[in-house]
Write a structure and sequence with these properties.
Length: about 400
Amino acid sequence: MKGNELKPRIGIFGRRNYGKSSLINYLTGQNIAIVSDTPGATTDPVRKTMELGGVGPVIWIDTAGIDDSGALGTMRVEKSLQELKQCDLAVIILSENRFEEPEETLVENCKKSKVPFIFVFSQSDRVSPSSAFLDSVSRKYGVTPYIYNISSLEYRLPLLDLIRDALPESAYRHQSLLAGIIAPSDRIVMVTPIDSSAPEGRMILPQVQVLRDILDNDAVAVVCKETELQSTLNSLPSPPRLVITDSQVFGMVSQIVPESVPLTSFSIVLARAKGLFEEYIQGTSAIDSLNDGDRILILESCTHNVTCEDIGRVKLPKLLLKHTGKQLHFDVVAGLTALQTPITDYSLVVQCGGCVVTPKQLVSRLAPALDANIPVSNYGLALAYLNGIFPRAIRPFQK
């Protein structure tokens, strides 16, 4: 169930001609990145998936030089720094005994984005690292540079071990979505509408992730459409431990499921697992404070075909307009695309469940809004609020 976006990301950063592409090829054992003596050979980030022992599949990212110049070069540097925000670990290449503004900018961006980093000293066969340089970097940043030479394979495995040890476990350790909420043998009813926005012949990823988690917790999953929910409940020998529904049918499902049975949505389950759950809960109430002319930012983590029944682009805006009675403006940004409008222009940000991104990517995506004190919500929480069942939908996760 681990798509490309859910794999840990390890970015290689450094100046032009410092051997970033060569390091990618060295670590993966494949010639996947273009190596050239011409500065700036790498323009857009290059990605390669590889199995890392003790971790599983990870994505290696080769980036443009952080010392690039000119109008186009500046854009490349900005692209690399944007890529850094989504990384779970940054490998910063040093060489020539230089640690100046480009390297300092990288480290500051790592700290700002809470991305752990390590230093590796490249091309030591050309310029040997001085003891004074290594000591200075170690004292200032608490990270001792690892010295390697790609002409010898003896450095490869120790360097991979160093990278694995520096990668946060949260980037690759699976955490249960429903641990502490359900127990073995519990019956969990999953309500999964099948409409024009549902993928042909399969379930959407959040539903599959929750289904797997139910099975991992040794519970019993009962799956039905909203139109069969009443008959499904009637057929059970006892009330289910929990009902999890697609957020778009919250209103209908809440009328069918007795108040005594806990009810929530797939999107809310993911919101709790991905982080920022308390920020979502606090921010959702800002819906009632919206005014005429306010702009709402809808963040989709994936890209998909849009239909007339799309939740984020169609149903959610309609419900917000109806609930508030205000003239609101909506912008939708898909994937991890950079925003074209300043975040401060928005009065509310609504994030999707984030089934295809890592917690690090989701938190980084919402950090600018939180830093600017802009309320953030989530598809499921916003839809629960608009259907008047917000307290009920979050109750299963409150102690």
